[in-house]
Amino acid sequence: MAMRGVMMLFFQVLILCFQAKAWHAVRRSFELEQTAAHQEKPRNCMHVTSEEGEFSYVKLPPVRSTSKHGHWMPAPDASGEPTAGEPDPEPGAAPATVCGIYFVADPDQTVEVTMRQVNVDCRTGGLMAFVDGWELNGQYFPGERDHEKPLGLRVQEFCAERTGGPWPGKQGATTSAGAWVFRSSQNAALVQYRIPERGSFVLSARFHHNPKPCNIMAEGLAPYYMLRNYGQRRNCTLTALFPAVVSVIAQEVGEINDSVRYCERVRVDDKLEIGGSVGLDPSYQLVRASTICGRSRGRMDLEQTILCGTTSVRLISSGRYNNQAMVTMRMADESDLRLATVICEM
Fold it and tell me: Which Pfam family name is an example for this entry (predicted)?
């Protein structure tokens, strides 16, 4: 558990460095309360968690002081007068803070988020979104080319002026006991929110078993990761948000009689790509360390050091074969610097 806590802190620092931009925003800190068995009150705008439970957030307008009658008074605006009500945001005004709760479960799990209460006013520019995957700096995991759903169905925006159901039906979400329920396709999901003036929400997160995991956000703690296409025409990606040492233990990719070989210069439809990138989506900016095809007859232990902000292993499949690869991934340390296979601009 201590090691998992260290990895979650590392994820959180990396996400802050990436500066997520689902909506253009200026970042500030916030208070998020997790009302589960293990209560947390992190104060970072970007919060990363691998825990199930209930999360609540409340934002109130700033206050100045108490009046002589003992009531809290609204803070004055630029003119020195107390603000009244919740006016519409003025054109050219500074954008509100965009924050996010980043969920990462075990590799063979999916994330279910239930919005139990939403009091985010659409009229004042308030907005929330559920992302099937992660978003950082305008890029998504899984990449747009690697996910089975188009981006328009993966990002579900919503807001509401009331805290109770039943709520109207919403595309991409189911309803349960008057609440919106969103489900991810892999072990990573994100809830983003922008609350300019005041608002609150309560959500609960649960993790479910995924019998056929494809895309995996690696937390760096698993002894190994399995990438499989299950005989389908699809791309499956293992991604880690840190420089890593990747070792291919075994693979079966492509023709049954083909032995393992490098195939960077050969046009093949089934292959395993290993590399790194600056952004989150490797399909756009992947700097390849190697491209491997064929089937191993035993343990390979092909180790490569990827010194990039994002490390990825992509299994690209045509659908004609049952492809699979067993991979280990650990965070690179100082002893790995001399043996770097790929170095990206950080």
Answer: CRF-BP_C
